[in-house]
Amino acid sequence: MDYYTILTIVYPFLEYEMEFSIWLNSEKECWDILMNNGSLYDQLNATEGHCDVSEVASRVVRPKLRPW
User: Fold this and answer.
1) DSSP 3-state assignment of 64?
2) Nearest CA-CA partner of 24 in 5, 51, 9
3) How far does Cα 37 stand from its chain's mean position?
4) What digits encode the pLDDT tens for the residues 9-68?
């Protein structure tokens, strides 16, 4: 089961530290954005980034209906 994850990135802008957050469908998706080369994190020259997993399920595995 996957849970919604919030990606938070902190980056410098002029003399200030700016921060934004994005909701994603899974923790794996969040870490992919932070760790891959050429990612959003790299393009912003970010100083900090982290993934916080929520308790709300984004995808629930449901049983399949059987014809019997």
Assistant:
1) coil
2) 5
3) 16
4) 999 999 999 999 999 999 999 998 888 877 788 888 888 999 999 888 887 777 777 777
- Alpha-carbon dihedral 29, 33, 38, 42, rounded to 10 degrees: 180
CA atoms 9, 15, 16, 18: torsion sign: negative
Is the distance from CB of 57 to CB of 2 less than 8 angstroms? Answer: yes
Strand 16-24 relative to strand 48-59: parallel, antiparallel, unpaired? Answer: unpaired
State if pTM tops 0.90: no
The full set of domain ranges for the chain reads: 2-59
Contact 49, 7 (CB under 8 A): yes
Sequence length of the chain is 68
